[in-house]
Specification:
The structure is a homodimer.
Chain A (H helix, E strand, L loop, with lengths): L17 H19 L6 H8 L3 H8 L2 H8 L5 H11 L5 H14 L1 H16 L1 H19 L8 H21 L10 H14 L6
Helix pairs in contact in A: 1-2, 1-4, 1-7, 2-3, 5-6, 5-8, 6-10, 7-8, 8-9
Amino acid sequence: MRRVKSISGKSPGRRPGRHNTKAIIVAAAQTLFATSGYDRTSLRHIAKLADVDPALIAHYFGTKQKLFVESMLPLYEGPKLLPDVLKGDSQFIGERLAGLFVMMTGDPQRLKLVTGMMRSISSEQQAADIAREFMQQSIMRIVEAYVPGPNKKLQANLVASQLMGVFMTRYIMKVEPLASATTEELVAYLAPRLQAHFEPLK
Amino acid sequence: MRRVKSISGKSPGRRPGRHNTKAIIVAAAQTLFATSGYDRTSLRHIAKLADVDPALIAHYFGTKQKLFVESMLPLYEGPKLLPDVLKGDSQFIGERLAGLFVMMTGDPQRLKLVTGMMRSISSEQQAADIAREFMQQSIMRIVEAYVPGPNKKLQANLVASQLMGVFMTRYIMKVEPLASATTEELVAYLAPRLQAHFEPLK
């Protein structure tokens, strides 16, 4: 039988243990990073929202930076799926990549995380540094194997730029009609534009 | 003979007049909006940096929002050039558009303005609203005449997304190798990707 979890991450009939406390801290961190940004969120704020002692957060996660990385883990699901998205029929990479974008932004919890991260990236140097590291290590390295040369790293940067730009335009600036486009419309229009990134340079 | 202007906007041998005071206020506003963002910049801060009475700013510009729009005027140069960039030989639209991007970001003063605006857009709703209005009215309306249909507005959004994403990746996140690419490399790689936006959907 599958265990049902409550929002707080506690399984019914089970006393809160180490695992649950960590999950509650991560959930509190996600909420605060997403709404207040990286700079304005302190371990003390997170401790207050999670109703735990700040020392416990330091014990479990070490630094705020490490907790930030941990709280962004749901975003790693995208890069984890990237190899499968890229390695299929090369004529439809754009379509599959657009589908992955829609999947990553379709879940409200994950969308809140990405939005919060984008806001932090734009206004805070430390968050930008963490995100850049993540992008260079987890995304670019995978994408660069599939784009045309000679400078595959630069090409991969441009793929990421297109996706990041669509995120900004649709979810942060809310430019119309992109902001209100259905996921079907988005995939139909974005896919060929993404596909172009994987075709030989003219 | 051309008049030479000093940094403060004053012409030599001329007493500061209404025009110069306005220019000094705008320069102060540009500096503060770019470094502190829209929310955290007040008319009082601007008045202090410009060394004028806050009431004078209200008299000249009305609201902070109007002063913000005024201080972003150098960014209108891009949209003003857009019709010429788009209407030439359609095979080279991507190249000319990449060139316009390089021109707009090559001037340090303008780059500071765009960076400040992007930071404000990402973290502050009011700045995002102003920028969206600007984008929809001044940029999208021009671009949408040149992209393939049926939803030309959505296509135009994607062109803007690509450029905004490149700006974010190169100047805000500083992802490599895009951040260190020369303008020649940038144009060579970005142009074909932009060009794809103006070619028929497959």
